[in-house]
UniProtKB/TrEMBL annotation, chain A:
<comment type="similarity">
    <text>Belongs to the bacterial solute-binding protein 1 family.</text>
</comment>
<keyword id="KW-0732">Signal</keyword>
<dbReference type="InterPro" id="IPR050490">
    <property type="entry name" value="Bact_solute-bd_prot1"/>
</dbReference>
<dbReference type="Pfam" id="PF01547">
    <property type="entry name" value="SBP_bac_1"/>
</dbReference>
<keyword id="KW-0813">Transport</keyword>
<keyword id="KW-0762">Sugar transport</keyword>
<protein>
    <submittedName>
        <fullName>Multiple sugar transport system substrate-binding protein</fullName>
    </submittedName>
</protein>
<feature type="signal peptide">
    <location>
        <begin position="1"/>
        <end position="26"/>
    </location>
</feature>
<dbReference type="InterPro" id="IPR006059">
    <property type="entry name" value="SBP"/>
</dbReference>
From TrEMBL, chain B:
<feature type="transmembrane region" description="Helical">
    <location>
        <begin position="98"/>
        <end position="117"/>
    </location>
</feature>
<keyword id="KW-0812">Transmembrane</keyword>
<dbReference type="InterPro" id="IPR035906">
    <property type="entry name" value="MetI-like_sf"/>
</dbReference>
<feature type="transmembrane region" description="Helical">
    <location>
        <begin position="355"/>
        <end position="376"/>
    </location>
</feature>
<feature type="domain" description="ABC transmembrane type-1">
    <location>
        <begin position="160"/>
        <end position="371"/>
    </location>
</feature>
<comment type="similarity">
    <text>Belongs to the binding-protein-dependent transport system permease family.</text>
</comment>
<feature type="transmembrane region" description="Helical">
    <location>
        <begin position="197"/>
        <end position="214"/>
    </location>
</feature>
<protein>
    <submittedName>
        <fullName>Multiple sugar transport system permease protein</fullName>
    </submittedName>
</protein>
<feature type="transmembrane region" description="Helical">
    <location>
        <begin position="32"/>
        <end position="56"/>
    </location>
</feature>
């Protein structure tokens, strides 16, 4: 009996050991295997993948080819490759929102089992929001998160000090600071700064900014209330006084922006901010780490970050008018201001082509897991050029990684504090994750807002254009199915 | 025995003649048989996509479980372009016509009417010619009407008019500059050979490279020419925020690339002009302008018209410059029809993309065939 017990314990250990060893990287395990991984041209996002691919090849023998395409082409390139059966792309790092369309076509490999038996990935260390939004769909894990995205407002601490202003809590305060700083010289290279730098280029990554501004006006009763559509009847929340207020803030900020701001991509506004030419900016987490890069930054230790500003008035969904915040209308307000931090984009995540050969799938998974493991990820999130922002618990708690990267305690506290506050907000706006979300946002919303900024449309016509465009997509896709998907994505009942 | 041999020989000759008939028939078919594979290949590559995109333009493409599905929607994709949700994008935003708009439309209607009447009264009229001219006249009137009703305050051009702007102004500018430079290079000036190579170089650069270069140069804030812009007092100019300035920057980039083509073709034509005729005119005391108008121009007109035609066909397809320079912005102000179709295609809205592509096909065909029939043939005819 003892013998049997001992034998079974030995077998259990052997199996456990085999399971663990199966996912520890073995030298030469993938010798001769080539994995084509597609992402966008970057340089961010592509940079860490390209930098770590040779490391990974040394470790495992797998050759990782990083293929890059412009951001605006990525969604379609992947779909075309997979839907047409070309399957030249074995894995990809893309926006987790697109997972909805990709899984519908059956193009993505279900990674649930692999993740479950991969202790090195430390899945529990990934913040719950990113696990749900960026990795899972319909209860299955399809993607490995490599990045955590929230939009925030960054400000120049030295400029605010000179102006005698506090970091903005509302969008009115944001405009007030932008106006006060715009065109003035605050040391640096002696050039006047722009009050506000927001990327507003069409067909790029600008269209999230309007939701970042509108969120605080539209959504006040928690995530499940939704900021894109009314979960009661799927009516777009883009044709009301709240959205109009956001459009006006957006347009006014352009008055205090650099020339040609509406043709600037995020890379341009980031470079303008860290080279000391902007007082305020609205961006993802990238600015925080770019600002401490001694090679590029002229604003080291002069940058603070806050959760997205909000509003003291919010939308009454029945009347379409703005009403003042009180305990009923804004249950989550802080000092009378309703904030709705926007998890814009969610964060770059990697998935695997379901049609890839088993060995390629194994190698692709091992590479994505390697990229996401704390040993690599906790270094990459502290490097500005990677475009990867914190998404693991350890990245918020282990301050030594930030110190090592050259970030001061004050800057780290401000930067991580803003992300943490956004992440913990019960009124967080979750990005659209319903079928054809890319068409709703990247085509209809982006085009209408670009026309508004160009002066082609006034605020009312812009809102009408977005509503008509969204309704048209909804009619095509089927309202009931879209509503069901939307309610599931925001946790509404 | 004799009869049997005669029978067999006649049967043999019948067989022989039948064989020769078959062989002759095969001989006659041989050219077709030999050409058939090439024809099928060409049809496969050119007609098949044409037919497929016509089919797609009547469909709605959607991703389904494990693949995709196509649903027939009739002319809905076209209707959207002209009167539906995409009207602003394709034909533009209409505004109430002002006095100038009405005057322009009236002048255009009168001019086109006079042109048609003159043709009908002329001796060379034909049914086909008449129908062709009617189509050209109707298209031109529609373009003038669209331009008059969408240009100016309250209106906005759609991708159709923006494309026509690039085509008409871009090609005209390229032709004039190309002709001027080519004419200068035929003069006995120092360094002519160097300038010939220099003027030719931009044609060798990829359009996307040119677009990036112009984007950097036109960046008045941080581009390499920023100090120059600042010195000129243009440091704060927001060209990308102004629809017309942005369109003009696109035309400048396009012109920089395509002037060399015009230059090259027109230089060859100018060098082929008879020196005897020019010298005879000079001896007669004709001025340079008279020599150019009456001797050189008639000689180069057929080549010039053909060069413009080739550029017209190319210019309708402009996509790289607006895409890289402005991504179609501000708003949709610099979006050409190809970029419009590309953006629709990028979101897998294949039906709408095909509908836009087909509209481009119609517009460019009408414009280019009209130009060929009314200008190129006439120029060639005059020469012969």
């Amino acid at each position: 009996m003892k013998c049997i017990k001992r034998a079974s314990v030995a077998v259990a250990f052997a199996v456990a050991g085999f399971m663990a060893a199966g996912h520890a990287l073995a030298a030469g395990e993938f010798q001769g295997v080539t994995v084509n991984v597609m992402t966008f041209v970057g340089p961010q996002i592509a940079e860490p993948l390209q930098r770590r691919a040779p490391e990974f090849e040394k470790l495992t023998g797998a050759k990782i080819n990083i293929l890059t395409v412009p951001f605006s082409d990525l969604y379609q390139k992947l779909l075309t490759d997979w839907a047409s059966g070309t399957n030249s792309v074995n894995a990809a790092v893309f926006a987790p929102q697109w997972m909805v369309d990709y899984t519908k076509g059956g193009f993505l490999e279900d990674l649930s089992a692999r993740v479950a038996r991969d202790p090195a990935l430390q899945e529990d260390d990934v913040m719950p929001f990113f696990r749900d939004f960026s990795q899972r769909f319909n209860g299955k894990t399809y993607l490995i998160a490599l990045d955590g995205d929230f939009q925030m407002v960054y400000y120049r601490t030295d400029i605010l000090k000179q102006l005698g202003k506090q970091p903005p809590k509302t969008w009115d305060e944001y405009l007030d600071i932008a106006k006060a700083a715009n065109g003035k010289v605050f040391g640096g290279d002696g050039k006047p700064v722009a009050g506000s730098c927001i990327s507003k280029k069409r067909n790029a990554q600008a269209y999230w900014a309007i939701i970042s501004i509108a969120g605080g006006y539209i959504q006040s009763k928690g995530t499940a209330q939704g900021a894109f559509f009314d979960p009661r009847d799927f009516k777009p929340l883009v044709n009301n006084d709240a959205f109009k207020a956001a459009l006006n803030v957006y347009k006014q900020s352009t008055q205090y922006g650099p020339p040609n701001e509406i043709n600037l991509d995020v890379g341009d506004t980031r470079s303008a901010f860290i080279s000391g030419h902007c007082a305020l900016t609205l961006d993802w987490g990238d600015i925080g780490v770019l600002a401490i890069d001694p090679k590029q930054s002229k604003v080291i230790d002069k940058v603070g970050a806050v959760m997205l500003p909000g509003s003291t008035k919010v939308l009454n969904r029945d009347t379409g008018k703005l009403v003042a915040c009180d305990k009923n209308t804004c249950p989550y307000a802080v000092d009378g201001v309703n904030h709705a931090p926007f998890a814009a984009f969610g964060g770059w995540s990697g998935g695997i082509n379901a049609k890839a050969s088993p060995k390629v799938k194994d190698a692709a998974y091992a590479f994505l897991s390697y990229m996401s493991q704390p040993a690599q990820a906790n270094v990459d999130v502290t490097i500005g050029a990677t475009g990867f922002n914190p998404y693991r618990r350890s990245q918020f708690t282990d301050m030594s990684i930030w110190k090592k990267s050259g970030m001061s305690d004050a800057a780290a506290a401000s930067y991580l504090g803003a992300i943490k506050a956004s992440l913990q907000s019960p009124n967080m706006v979750i990005d659209l994750r319903i079928p054809q979300n890319q068409r709703y946002e990247q085509v209809v919303l982006d085009t209408a807002v670009a026309r508004f900024l160009a002066g082609e449309l006034d605020a009312d016509a812009t809102m009408k254009a977005i509503q008509t465009g969204w309704d048209e997509i909804t009619d095509d896709a089927g309202k009931d199915a879209q509503l069901k998907a939307y309610k599931a994505s925001i946790g509404a009942h | 025995m004799q009869s049997s041999s005669r029978v067999s020989s006649s049967a043999a000759s019948r067989r022989g003649s039948r064989r020769s008939v078959a062989a002759n028939w095969l001989d006659r078919q041989a050219p077709y048989v030999f050409v058939l594979p090439a024809v099928l290949l060409i049809l496969g590559f050119s007609i098949f996509p044409l037919v497929t995109s016509a089919y797609l333009s009547l469909m709605r493409f959607a991703l389904g479980e494990g693949g995709y599905e196509l649903k027939f929607v009739g002319m809905r994709n076209y209707v959207r372009l002209f009167s539906g949700s995409q009207q602003f994008h394709f034909v533009g935003v209409f505004r109430p016509p002002g006095v100038i708009s009405i005057a322009v439309m009236a002048a255009a209607a009168l001019a086109i009417g006079w042109w048609l009447v003159r043709y009908l009264r002329g001796g060379q009229r034909s049914v086909i010619g008449g129908i062709g001219r009617l189509i050209a006249a109707a298209s031109l009137l529609a373009v003038v009407w669209l331009a008059a009703n969408t240009t100016g305050d309250g209106g906005a051009l759609g991708s159709l008019m923006v494309t026509l702007f690039y085509v008409v102004f871009g090609v005209a500018l390229q032709f004039l500059l190309g002709l001027g430079l080519a004419y200068l290079c035929t003069l006995p000036l120092k360094g002519g050979r160097f300038f010939r190579i220099l003027f030719f170089l931009p044609l060798m650069v990829t359009p996307v490279g040119i677009a990036y270069m112009f984007r950097m140069m036109a960046d008045t804030a941080v581009g390499p020419l920023a100090p120059l812009w600042a010195w000129l007092g243009l440091g704060q100019i927001a060209w990308a925020a102004d629809p017309w300035l942005a369109r003009i920057v696109v035309v400048i980039g396009d012109t920089w690339q395509w002037v060399p083509f015009m230059f090259l073709v027109l230089l060859a034509a100018l060098e082929g002009t008879s020196r005897d005729q020019i010298e005879a005119a000079q001896l007669d005391g004709a001025s340079s302008w008279r020599i150019f108008r009456d001797v050189i121009w008639p000689s180069i007109a057929p080549v010039a018209a053909s060069a413009v035609l080739i550029r017209l066909i190319e210019a309708f397809k402009v996509v790289d410059l607006p895409n890289v320079l402005t991504n179609g912005g501000p708003g949709i102000a610099t979006e050409s029809m190809t970029l419009h179709a590309f953006i629709e295609w990028r979101t897998l809205n294949l039906g709408s993309a095909s509908a836009v592509a087909y509209m481009l096909f119609f517009v460019s065909t009408i414009a280019c065939v009209s130009f060929f029939q009314l200008v190129v043939r006439r120029a060639r005819g005059r020469q012969s």
